[in-house]
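Take a record.
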Amino acid sequence: MDMRHQVRSKRERERRTSLVLMAVAAVVLFAGLFAQISIRARISGQAKQISAVRQEIQALSANAENLSLCINQYHNLDDISARAQSLGMALPTDDQLRVVRLPLAVEDTSAQTVLNAQDGEEIG
């Protein structure tokens, strides 16, 4: 009877050990699945953010190109002249033009001014 008891005891221990090992394996499996799902969710969120940033970059690039075209449109002298004439402006006549010649200066001339007097012009 003692031998049977030892065999039963050994089988019981093996069954408990296998149950504990199966429980540990199940916990590890579920922890791994949870970790995988959370990592995939994080990657999916980051992919959505990247997509949103790319769309924003595309929109901003298109807007910058439109603004550049608009700025270039205002640098075209023929278009500016046509627009000014359509607004009622006229080209200046020869008696309205005045040519001002400034002396050549070697030093910094960023603050030179021209004073228009009745009889002539003074450069200061």
Summary: Residues 114 and 120 are 11 Å apart (CA to CA). Helices lie at 2-74, 77-86. Strands lie at 114-116, 121-123.
